[in-house]
Design a protein that fits this description.
The complex is a heterotrimer of chains A (611), B (285) and C (427). Chain A is α/β, with parallel strands linked by helices and 611 residues long. Chain A folds into three domains: 11-238, no CATH class; 349-427 and 498-568, Rossmann fold; 433-496, no CATH class. Chain A contains 24 helices and ten strands. Chain A has helices at residues 4-25, 31-56, 64-79, 87-106, 114-133, 157-179, 181-191, 193-198, 203-229, 239-252, 257-276, 281-297, 303-315, 335-338, 391-399, 421-424, 443-450, 457-466, 481-494, 511-528, 539-545, 563-568, 570-577, 579-593; strands at 353-362, 365-375, 380-384, 406-411, 414-415, 428-430, 499-503, 531-535, 548-553, 556-562. In chain A, helix 20 (511-528) links the parallel strand 7 and strand 8. Chain B starts with a helix and ends in a 10-residue tail after the last helix. Helices cover 72% and strands 3% of the residues of chain B. Chain B contains twelve helices and two strands, in the order αααααββααααααα. Chain B has 285 residues and is an all-alpha fold. Chain B has one domain (2-275): Orthogonal Bundle (ABC transporter involved in vitamin B12 uptake, BtuC), CATH 1.10.3470. With 427 residues, chain C is of the alpha/beta class. The termini of chain C are far apart. Classes of the chains: A alpha/beta (611), B mainly alpha (285), C alpha/beta (427). Chains A and B meet through helix 5, helix 8, helix 10 and helix 12 of A and helix 5, helix 10 and helix 12 of B.
């Protein structure tokens, strides 16, 4: 996968170095500290699981450690006295068994978010705790004992190595996944589900994969704890324990491997120290609660984030802002003449986008009324109209973000009405009025996520260059609005769609920036073999870029045709500006043509307009 | 069956009162206060300390406990108002979860397993209904919770202060610019809810519990009730609380009694999933 | 406080915490290696290190066990220790969770090199650490809180426990109290249900006619802890005797709920319901007849003698507790008696075994002659069996005039005992 090895290389190497040091440390630790360290590794693995679902995918699910219970019980069954599976394998099996449970736990997340999801998953934790206490599951009846693995080493070294090797393997998994499409899609849905779907990411698949893999990881940790204690005990999945772990995960920033590692070490060591000093463990809980609250108030205070910043500062890895790319200008003659048209322009190719008779009702309000428009392949069509005319509604409907509409949408001849948004994204892409880029991603990663399967790295770099971005390794949050806008368009391009719908790309840009944008937009249809629909209020840009216009007012198409012609029409001006001003414009035109025309009775020149 | 249902008024009254407070806090402050049970429980346990240390009688120690409950609410409210006023709903809610863990740690120190004589203001005869005695205190609590629900909604609609609260809940920043004292009102709502929770818990405390965490977990049941009102309607929340209490009471002695705690969870999941079934996307537009 | 200010303070705190942790870690790791050297030697002045893991926090009453054990060891040390060795006692709180219990056990055994556990009264210890104790030759004498504590080779509970306690309860109920209809409300660890059912069948077979009076057995989860529904249900069923198996505060709650609901019945609880504060808390409610004409009173099967017993050993404990400002109740009794049994075993075995090592202590425990503690229905011992249900009786107590008194009609004077052993659990 493009860039995966190189991108994951550094954190992977760093993690392995640290873990190897930790494992070596085990040889000089006393038996007791080996045990503490082993439990710490298991807690760190729980951290990875929480970090994946909450830290990366942004889902406020509290039940990961409770799913660990499944792993615990499985290990107890499989490796207990009557068991027939030796320990490392039972860990794996237990983790596999937990996957469907993780999927089930993830189902509410498809419709519930944030607070609502937290409530439901907390309830899930309580159910698991209730069932465990009720003794209906293995381990608590007849106390199934599991022999702690020793691997023929002294003290708890065997367990220690098993736990830290497990951490290394699972942390490596999360590091690799983080930079893979799955990981990028998690970051995307955490930021904006709509934007993710618009890039072709299936939100459902992203969420469920996060839950499934996190369940695998959590169950592995649960199994390790059983191996450490020697038996399964339901008290480990008490809601307070689960909440404390979650608080710690937030505090340490467990979305990154170092946060999870810090969680494990901190949790194990602090409870060990509290024991040694004879202090109550409640103190630890209270401290974690305070720490979590502090971090919640200030996300930068998360431990792993702080570490990353320090490291970046030390190694000066943050890419320099770089020379800004010179803005392109536009020849006054207009681009329409100079842009290379695709060879088969005007042939009998089906239009890139064809919307027919689209009607959308929001309750009693008719947002779109029998709207039809066509975007031929290789051309730029403008969609204009006053605010509230229904332009964004049209885009939403065409790209699958509206549940119901009547009429049909065809892309490259194929009807797409039955497809959900993420599937439509293979054929038609869109941008958003709001900035829905994924700030944590670099330009490269962002485009890689949006890219159609099989897109080469070379192609992605080409597109980045095309939109005029030089800082492909900087996080998007450090780039200015203009570049982010362009990269949103770039993301559309990497999907190799047949039609692209761009929603008010010039909003907030200066004149020079608008011209630069126009210069790039105009090249898109020819270069990328697609049709482009541009929604805009900036008439200059529209005039420069669009070959034809469609005008929308109150949900109806009131005009459609070549750009220059449409812009002259008084009813178009009237729609934008109001009747009186349109009338004045008409008088000016008449005066300019020098013809004598009857002056309407109620509007003599020079008289103020009645209101 | 009837006996159990009537017996269910005892926990039902607590759930109803707590549910009303949860809806109030969600509507006014944009937070699902998971810590409500723990706050009320801690305030209620203070009554024990007043009896133990100062030898106060039932009435003064109860009043003192309510005041303590209010103070706890003030402290938490100040914390939230200071650092999380402009944060999102889930951030504030997560904060309350963290606070719950901390409060349980404190509460465990006070309730450590001996038997306690909690001041029982509502001790008194029970009303014999259909052959089962229902403690007067619980009947009063159920009635009070319903009255509270209606009263608060009327208050919010008809008084100037209510209007200020509603303004603050919808647009805190704008309200602040209009001169509404947002921070003060926030803290006041926290204090009020905490005091009400203290009273609610005190009614049931003498006849229940040996340890602190169950008091904190009362909020889960109350949340189920609040969700029945879709976190909007206080009266439905109060009625829902009573119903959940009755349901719990019927389930508890039965064969599946061990799973009583799963009851509110079942309610919560069903309501949430049905309520939010159209939320395909995370953002509105 | 501005964001950057706050950030820098948080950063500094984190850095300081990390440094503190690192320093302590290094110190502990070094300390452990030095204590390695100290542990091995025997000889006149080497101390006997023992530890206790008890569930202190989490709202349970077991915390009182600790000062009970401490008081006894202090007394013994004042008398010169055991065979010249002084006893060093440390203890920890496991909060009822397996992870804490496991960690504490390993801390004490592997790091601090204790030779035995004395007085453990924990919800997690028996289950979690059983195999650990067995493989490290650690003997445990303590208060058994769960059925599992009564079936371990290395764990010796000095209390009767739920099984013997239950059979004692049934014996007394049907021989002396003779109720019409019994409702049993179990709040115990439900994993023991199969064995309870087996015992009930066995008991019914031995006492024909009893089966008819067992109306209902319900199992409730301790955590919900709202007794009202259960008592309302019992009233609807017409029960006139309620059997409980819960801790004292919950029992008090049940009685109060019974009054509120109008349930006219006798209450009898297992030993976990015994606490000296109960009569005071219940007040007039505790007296016979308070709930109605069928109410014969509030009974408890105290697994160790009541603190107002006239036995001289009990009185010694009460006197010592008073001097040390320790509250005298069932739990501190467990601490005291555990220590007493332990010291008795070691005093006897000092001449044969090296009682400063774990294996020596375990052997001394295994070969001790039964010791009459003055607190139990029968002499207590450790023994070599696979399990140690040593205490087979309880002292039935009744509330009268605001205090616990010994109940009349017990089959062994001041105690009710199970003659013989209970059948083994069918697996």
């Amino acid at each position: 996968m493009y860039g995966l090895k190189r991108a994951s290389g550094t954190p992977l190497a760093a993690m392995l170095c640290v873990v190897i040091v930790v494992m070596a440390l085990g040889f000089v630790l006393s038996s007791y500290w080996q045990y503490v360290g082993a439990v710490g590794a298991a807690e760190a693995i729980f951290g990875l699981s929480i970090g994946m679902v909450y830290g990366q995918a942004g889902m406020l699910s509290l039940c990961q450690p409770a799913i660990g219970a499944i792993g615990a019980w499985s290990v107890a069954y499989l490796s207990g006295e009557e068991g027939w599976v030796p320990l490392p394998w039972s860990l794996f099996l237990g983790a596999i068994i937990a996957i469907p449970i993780g999927l089930a736990a993830g189902l509410p997340a498809l419709r519930l978010r944030r607070v609502n999801l937290a409530i439901v998953t907390l309830g899930f934790v309580i159910v698991i705790d209730t069932v465990a206490q009720a003794g209906q599951v293995a381990g608590s009846q007849e106390s199934i004992f599991v022999k702690t693995p020793t691997w023929d080493l002294a003290g708890y070294m065997g367990l220690y190595l098993l736990c830290w090797l497990s951490f290394a393997a699972l942390a490596a998994l999360t590091i690799v996944l983080r930079r893979s499409r799955w990981g990028l899609s998690w970051l995307a849905i955490a930021r904006s589900e709509r934007a993710a779907a618009a890039m072709g990411v299936s939100v459902m698949r992203a969420k469920l994969t996060a839950f499934a893999i996190a369940a695998f990881i959590a169950a592995w940790a649960g199994g390790l704890l059983v191996a450490a204690f020697g038996s399964a005990d339901p008290s480990n999945f008490d809601p307070v324990v689960v909440l404390t772990l979650f608080a710690l995960a937030v505090m340490m920033g467990a979305g990154y491997w170092e946060g999870a590692l810090a969680l494990g070490i901190f949790s194990a060591v602090s409870s060990a120290l509290l024991e040694q000093w004879g202090l109550t463990p409640d103190l630890g809980t209270a401290l974690f609660a305070i720490g979590a609250i502090t971090v919640l108030g200030n996300e930068d205070a998360a431990f792993s984030v702080m570490i990353r910043r320090q490291v970046a500062r030390l190694t000066k890895r943050r890419a320099a802002a770089g020379e800004p790319v010179a803005l392109r200008s536009f020849t006054p003659a207009g681009a329409a003449a100079t842009v290379p048209r695709p060879a088969d322009a005007g042939s009998s190719r089906p239009p890139a986008l064809a919307i027919s008779d689209m009607t959308v009702n929001f309750g009693a309000v008719r947002a779109l009324d029998d709207v039809s428009l066509t975007v031929p392949c290789g051309e730029v069509v403008g969609l204009v109209g006053p605010n509230g005319a229904g332009k964004s509604t049209l885009v939403d409907a065409a790209t699958g973000f509206l549940a119901t509409y009547s009429g049909s949408v065809r892309v490259d001849g194929a009807q797409i009405d039955a497809l959900p948004a993420a599937k439509r994204a293979r054929l038609v892409r869109r941008t958003f009025q709001q900035d829905r880029t994924i700030g944590e991603l670099t330009a490269e990663d962002y485009l890689r996520l949006a890219a159609a399967p099989g897109t080469s790295g070379k192609r992605i770099r080409e597109i980045i260059e095309f939109v005029g971005c030089r800082n492909s390794r900087t996080p998007l949050s450090s780039l200015d609005v203009r570049l982010r806008r362009l990269l949103m368009i770039g993301a559309c391009l990497t999907g190799a769609p047949k039609a692209i719908l761009v929603d008010e790309p010039a909003a907030g840009l200066s004149v020079e920036e608008s011209i630069d944008l126009a210069a790039r937009l105009v090249e898109i249809p020819g270069r990328f073999d697609c049709g482009l629909l541009v929604i805009e209020h900036d008439m200059e840009l529209v005039r420069l870029v669009c070959t034809s216009l469609v005008v929308l007012d109150f949900g109806k198409v009131i005009a459609s045709g070549p750009t220059a012609e449409i812009l002259q029409r008084p009813d178009v001006a009237a729609a934008y500006l109001g009747d009186d001003v349109a009338a004045e414009k008409e008088l000016e035109d008449i005066a300019a043509r020098g013809a004598r025309a009857p002056v309407p009775d109620d509007k003599k020149a020079g008289e103020p307009h009645g209101r | 069956m009837v006996a159990e249902m009537l017996a269910g008024l005892v926990p039902g009254g607590v759930y109803a009162a707590l549910a009303v407070c949860i809806v109030l806090m969600y509507q006014m402050l944009g937070v699902v206060n998971f810590a409500l049970g723990a706050m009320g429980g801690l305030g209620a346990c203070m009554s024990l300390l007043f009896v133990r240390w100062f030898g106060l009688g039932p009435v003064p120690s109860t009043l003192a406990a309510v005041v303590c409950g209010g103070i706890i609410g003030v402290v938490v409210g100040l914390l939230v108002a200071r650092y999380f006023l402009e944060a999102s709903v889930e951030l504030r809610t997560t904060v309350t979860i963290a606070i719950t863990a901390g409060l349980i740690a404190v509460g465990d120190r006070i309730l450590n397993g001996a038997t306690y004589s909690f001041p029982n203001l509502f001790a008194g005869p029970s009303l014999e209904i259909f052959g089962t005695g229902v403690p007067i205190g619980s009947l009063v609590e159920v009635a009070a919770a319903l009255l509270l629900a209606v009263g608060v909604q009327v208050f919010l609609r008809t008084t100037y202060l209510g209007a200020q609260l509603r303004a603050m809940s919808e647009r805190p920043i704008t309200a602040g610019l209009l001169g509404i004292r947002v921070r003060t009102l926030t803290v006041a709502v926290w204090a009020f809810a905490s005091a009400v929770a203290t009273i609610a818990v005190m009614v049931v405390l003498p006849t229940s519990t040996t340890s602190f965490p169950p008091l904190a977990y009362l909020v889960i049941f109350a949340l189920g009730a609040a969700l029945l009102g879709l976190l909007r309607n206080m009266v439905i929340a109060a009625v829902g609380g009573v119903l959940i209490g009755m349901l719990q009471s019927i389930v508890q002695p039965s064969a599946i009694g061990r799973y009583t705690e799963a009851v509110p969870f079942a309610v919560i999941v069903l309501v949430m999933v049905w309520w939010r079934r159209r939320d395909v996307w995370s953002e509105a537009r | 406080m501005s964001t950057s200010n706050r950030r820098s303070i948080v950063r500094r705190c984190m850095a300081f915490a990390a440094a503190a942790v690192a320093v302590t870690l290094a110190a502990s790791a070094c300390a452990s290696s030095s204590s390695d050297a100290a542990g091995g030697s025997s000889g006149g002045s080497a101390p006997i290190k023992v530890a206790q893991i008890t569930t202190i926090s989490g709202g349970y009453p077991f915390g009182a066990v600790v000062p009970g054990t401490q008081a006894y060891f202090k007394l013994i040390n004042a008398q010169g220790g055991i065979d010249g060795h002084k006893i060093q006692f440390i203890y920890g709180d496991d909060k009822g969770t397996a992870s804490q219990a496991a960690e504490l056990a390993r801390l004490y055994v592997l790091q601090d090199h204790v030779v035995a556990m004395v007085g453990n009264t924990s919800l997690a210890d028996c289950n979690t650490n059983a195999s650990f104790y067995a493989s490290n030759d650690i003997g445990v004498i303590g208060g058994g809180t769960e059925p599992l504590c009564f079936t371990q080779p290395n764990w010796d509970p000095i209390n009767a426990g739920p099984y013997y306690g239950k059979v004692v309860q049934w014996q007394y109920t049907f021989n002396e109290l003779k109720p019409t209809t019994v409702c049993e409300i179990e709040q115990n660890d439900p994993t023991s249900i199969p064995y309870y059912n087996q015992l009930r069948t066995w008991f019914e077979a031995q006492n024909p006619g009893v089966a008819a009076t067992f109306k209902e057995i319900t199992y409730t989860n301790d955590a919900t802890q709202n007794p009202t529904p259960a008592v309302a249900h019992a009233k609807a069923l017409g029960c006139d005797l309620i059997q409980l198996s819960t801790v004292a505060p919950n029992m008090v709650a049940f009685v109060k709920a019974a009054k509120a609901v109008g349930l006219d019945a006798t209450f009898i609880t297992l030993g976990s319901g015994y606490d000296t504060s109960v009569p005071g808390t219940l007040g007039a409610l505790g007296d016979p007849g308070a709930l109605g004409p069928k109410d014969k009173g509030v009974f408890v099967g105290a697994e160790l003698a009541a603190v107002n017993s006239t036995n001289p050993q009990v009185q010694l404990m009460v006197k010592t507790f008073k001097a040390d400002n320790v509250a005298a109740n069932f739990w501190s009794e467990i601490g005291w008696v555990s220590a007493a049994v332990f010291v008795a075993a070691l005093k006897e075995g000092a001449s044969h075994y090296n009682i400063t090592t774990a294996s020596g202590v375990l052997k001394a425990l295994q070969h001790m002659t039964p010791y009459d503690s003055g607190f139990a229905a029968n002499p207590l011992t450790f023994g070599t069996a696979k399990s140690h249900p040593g205490n087979r009786g309880s002292q039935m107590l009744l509330i009268k005039n605001g205090t616990w008194v010994v109940a009349p009609g017990q089959n062994a004077g001041d105690y009710e005992v199970v003659k013989g052993l209970l059948p083994a659990a069918k697996s």
